[in-house]
Design a protein that fits this description.
Elements (H helix, E strand, L loop, with lengths): L3 H7 L1 E4 L5 E4 L19 E5 L11 H15 L3 E5 L10 E11 L2 E9 L4
Parallel strand pairs: 3-4
Antiparallel strand pairs: 1-2, 5-6
Pfam family, one: Glyco_transf_5
GO biological process, one term: starch biosynthetic process
GO molecular function: glycosyltransferase activity
């Protein structure tokens, strides 16, 4: 039997006479883009993690957040990475933006710093 996920992967949705949702297979045109998501101009992407190489790295997460965002930016996406500031970094500057957030039953003040990398 075909489940709903299989129907979603098989083509465009149409309603059958019985009222059930059925998928029609898409015809693959000459562009070869059937079933693919295409973004013109790139997507805005935000990565949030506890470590980012080369500033803070203890394992694989730091490597991923140090390498993946620049690779996606090179492909035309607008990328931002957010991580805690554990130390004084020479290339990070204070944006003078302060916000207060609730963490459990406490209010914490957060200061934003910025580092622009190409």
């Amino acid at each position: 039997s075909v489940n709903k996920l299989d129907m979603l992967h098989s083509g465009a949705l149409t309603k059958a006479a019985s009222g059930k949702v059925v998928r029609k297979p898409k015809s693959t045109g000459t562009d070869g883009l059937a079933g693919k998501i295409v973004c013109s101009g790139g997507m805005p992407l935000i990565f949030v993690g506890t470590e980012v190489a080369p500033w803070s790295k203890t394992g694989g997460l730091g490597d991923v957040l140090g390498g993946l965002p620049p690779a996606l930016a090179a492909r035309g996406h607008r990328v931002m990475t957010i991580a805690p500031r554990y130390d004084q970094y020479k290339d990070g500057w204070d944006t003078c933006v302060l916000i207060q957030i609730r963490v459990g039953d406490q209010i914490e003040t957060v200061r934003y710093f910025h580092c622009y990398k190409r």
